[in-house]
Each structure stands twice: as C-alpha cells, then as structure tokens.
Amino acid sequence: MQPLLVLCTCPTRECADTIARSLVDLHLAACVNLLPGVHSVYRWQGAVESTEEVLLLIKTQAARLEEMKVHILMQHPHELPEIVAVHMDSGLDRYLGWIGEQTRPSSP
C-alpha cells in the first residue's frame, strides 16, 4: 500500500465539505483536512486571477487515486480543479496502516 497526500482546492467551504465527506463515505479517503483562508493567485484563460479558496488535504492510497480523481471531477464546480498527489515516503507506521485500512474498497 502506497499512501498519498492529495491536494485539492475548492471555491467554498460548502463545496469542500461536500467533497471531503463523500470521499470518506466512499472509502476513497481515510481523512480529509479542510484548510480555509487559502489565497490563490493563478493565470486562467489569459488573465491573472486572485481568489480565496479552501484547501483539502486528502489522505488516501495510490490504488484509489484514479477513482478519487473521477469522483472529484464529478463533484467539483471548476472546469479544471487542482488535484495533485504526493507520495508519503515515511510517517507513523500505525497511521499509514490506518490509511490503508480505511481506503480498502471492501471497508464497511
């Protein structure tokens, strides 16, 4: 099991909460932290944009990433949402094991 940390920004707290809860409900994530107050500056369609967003820190495993991406794309209001996965090379073994347990497709 390869644990991942997936970053995804959402335009509102309500959007972030909906996506976070559905990911955990479907066992696509073991835990999702919502970090409000993220100020993003980016270029979109030729213009520099600036907006407040909520950052999701999603803990999952690599085997669930593709299904997670599809789910986020279906739930997210943006045409091109941020979905970036980072491998967790180390951490508390029991916590990393818990991520694997919680994100098994057959979990209750």
Explain the overall architecture:
- This protein has 108 residues and is an alpha+beta fold.
- It is 31% helix and 38% strand.
- The chain has 3 helices and 4 strands.
- A 4-stranded antiparallel β-sheet has the order 2-3-1-4.
- A hairpin with a 2-residue loop joins strand 2 and strand 3 (47-61).
- Helix 1 (13-25) packs antiparallel against helix 2.
Question: In terms of topology, how is this protein built?
Answer:
Layout: E1 3-10, H1 13-25, E2 31-44, E3 47-61, H2 65-75, E4 84-87, H3 93-102
Antiparallel strand pairs: 1-3, 1-4, 2-3
Helix pairs in contact: 1-2
SSE ordering = EHEEHEH
- Read across the widest sheet, the strand sequence of neighbours is 2-3-1-4
Low-confidence stretches: none
Helix content: 25-40%
Q: Biggest sheet, open or closed, and with what strands and sense? A: 4 strands, antiparallel
The residue-averaged pLDDT reads 96
Helical run tally = 3
